[in-house]
Amino acid sequence: MNNTFLILKQEYLKRVKKKSFIILTILMPFLIAGVYGLVIYFSIKDDTEERKIAVYDESSLFLGEFTDKGTTKYHFVPKEEYAELKTKIKGSGYYGLLHIPKDIYSNNQAQLISEKQLPFELAEQIERKMSRFIENDKRQKVIEESGIPDLEDQLKKTRTNINLNTLRISDSGEAKKSSSVIAFIASYAMGFIIYFFVFMYGAMVMRSVMEEKKSRIIEVIISSVKPSELMAGKIIGTALVGLTQVGIWIGLGGIALVVAQGFFSPESAQQMSQSLMESQGQMNPAMAQATQPDKVNEIMGLISNLNLPLILFCFLFYFLTGYLLYSAFLGAVGAAVDSEEDSQQMVLPVTFPLILSIMLLFPIAKNPEGPLAFWCSIIPFTSPVTMMARVPYGIPTWELLLSMGLLVLTTVGAIYAAAKIYRVGLLMYGKKVNIKEMIKWLRYKN
Predict the structure, then answer these.
(1) Number of folded domains in the chain?
(2) Does the pLDDT value for residue 269 go beyond 60?
């Protein structure tokens, strides 16, 4: 046990003292925010590439309806030019050729020809333009045939937008405002974070073992330390590194949340409005009301209405058990192979359930009560990621306890099996190892 503690301490301090760890811990939240910011920026940024679309309207219904939008330009062409462009669109200067047939009303079909694969947004834009025109035209004909005066104005008055406020009844019977959007974002984000860190720190254990085995330092180490103590020290030490990093980020997130709540409180909003009125003399009441960050306060309230203690507990539990499960497997792989190439072949079968869980995360977060979500959150190899996609929505206690119990039992069994592979594989050199060979090692007696 003393040897395990010494190895644990050495692994922990070796990684925590690195400048890369300190820099990554500080910069990672900003990097993640920056990446999402860039994704959002480029998603809403206007495209600068000009696309010229030739339109042949055989129905003569849409003449003048296709107006230029942004960098997309529309140009109506006659039948003769259309026939020529149809065979020679390449090099014509047009990005695409749109053909609207005579029977567009009856078959609802049009054709867009291009030498390139058309962007989804462009095709959707054209479909939307044509659909809206036909809908408006059909509605106008119905209005004219009805003979009812001011029918169009009356129909416009019937248009209604409903805002759905969702409430969640707690175990105590108290109704709290909830948001499916907030729950979805929280579930997907936490599942992805667990996947990322379990994979990253598990691979860190594997690389550490491989480096020591390749340099033959491992032969010196195990002369005074049992292989099981060495593996335990490496796994637990790296786990503490991960917990330190996650703990710092949770602390920073909590501080940011408190600061945001204080900054956007009604009192601070009122003070902000008063200071603006004093600096600008007099402010329009509507403008003063607009300065109050009600939307931010509402989001903060929805976040606080989540069962944050349970979510935090489950996050730490599934992070630790998921890490122990996969780091044990990856540590055994690192001990069994001699080269990076061999490790790549072994890593995929071992981590496939983890990769599958991140692929299923989106449909599970969309339907957290379905059979797919249930079984993936119960099966121990996928539950560390998929269960976190369900926790923010609230799940039955028995399901959570069953998932945790099965995961703990599987993790204990995995550590035991990995320790046997680890013990044999550490001193195994020059032999290609496969899954079948590793299963044989499990049968060896101590």
Answers:
(1) 2
(2) no
